[in-house]
Design brief:
The chain is of the alpha+beta class and 267 residues long. The chain contains 5 helices and 11 strands; from the N terminus they run βαββαβαβαββββαββ. Strands 1, 2, 3, 4, 5, 8, 9, 10 and 11 form a 9-stranded mixed beta sheet that branches. A two-stranded antiparallel ribbon has the order 6-7.
């Protein structure tokens, strides 16, 4: 006798405000609690300690916000999908908002495997916008960008230039009470916002690593500050991208919102 077909839902949600300081693991616990509150018929793993069958997309670093987070959940019977987004949002703390819920087709690939790249809005503090602009131009023109990483106690140097798929300076920002993190000289954190698309495939790059690379370029070879004085401000993930049969899209589209975006391609 063949097993019954798997019933899976994909949920799109946002993470913003103070909840950005809650870890990925704790966000998973909050969703488990919300699903129990709304009595979602979740499927559970077998064994001594059964767990709900939840599968999240790419982990979001603590302190970062997102317009486009995803999770998959397996259910034992199909719920009222139309009302589920609002019900889950009511059961979640402020800052976590479920925007859409869709039913996955049988055999749909997991989020971890299908996402090829992410678009970010990254605020850089500590230096004038013209210096950030110059560093961006150097990064786009560079044939390679070497970054030293420590993995499992071993140091390795990787060329991360292929991971920068697109990059542009969106413009200056002004410090607000929500992001009043003093710079090294004690001045208000007026900064520069970048829009960047980073690969999630064989060569990947984190926003913090991009700032490290740009800081070296902003500093120049003779600077006393090896990081160029660049400090990470607000970071928001705006899109996660998949590609199926040559067509690029989001795993779940935001309701009534276009996914178009214009970036300087980093070819």
């Amino acid at each position: 006798m063949s097993p019954p077909p798997r019933l899976r839902l994909r949920i799109r949600f946002t993470k913003a405000g103070k909840i950005r300081f809650v870890s990925h693991r704790d966000v998973a616990r909050l969703f488990e609690r919300a699903m129990r509150i709304v009595r979602l018929p979740m499927a559970y793993s077998e064994g001594f300690s059964p767990r709900p069958k939840l599968s999240f997309g790419l982990a979001l670093s603590v302190g970062h916000e997102s317009n486009a987070e995803y999770l998959d959940v397996e259910v034992t019977e199909m719920p009222d999908v139309e009302s589920l987004a609002a019900a889950l949002t009511d059961a979640l703390p402020d800052g976590l908002t479920v925007e859409a819920v869709v039913v996955l087709e049988q055999g749909a690939v997991s989020l971890q495997q299908v996402i090829t790249s992410c678009t970010w809005r990254i605020e850089v503090l500590g230096v004038p916008t013209d210096r950030v602009t110059a560093a961006v131009a150097l990064a786009l023109d560079a044939p390679e960008l070497l970054l030293e990483r420590v993995r499992k106690g071993k140091t390795a140097v990787a060329d991360v230039r292929p991971a920068i798929l697109a990059l542009r300076v969106a413009g200056p920002t002004r410090g607000t009470p929500a992001r009043e993190t003093p710079t090294r000289d004690g001045l208000p954190p007026h900064g520069t916002e970048l829009e960047v698309e980073l690969s999630n495939e064989s060569t990947s790059l984190r926003p913090s690593e991009l700032i490290e690379v740009l800081g070296r370029l902003a500093a120049g070879p003779d600077s006393p500050e090896p990081d160029g004085g660049l400090i990470e401000g607000r970071v928001r993930r705006t899109h996660q991208w998949i590609e199926v049969d040559g067509i690029r899209s989001e795993p779940v589209s935001r309701p009534d919102a276009s996914t178009r975006h214009e970036l300087r391609r980093a070819s």
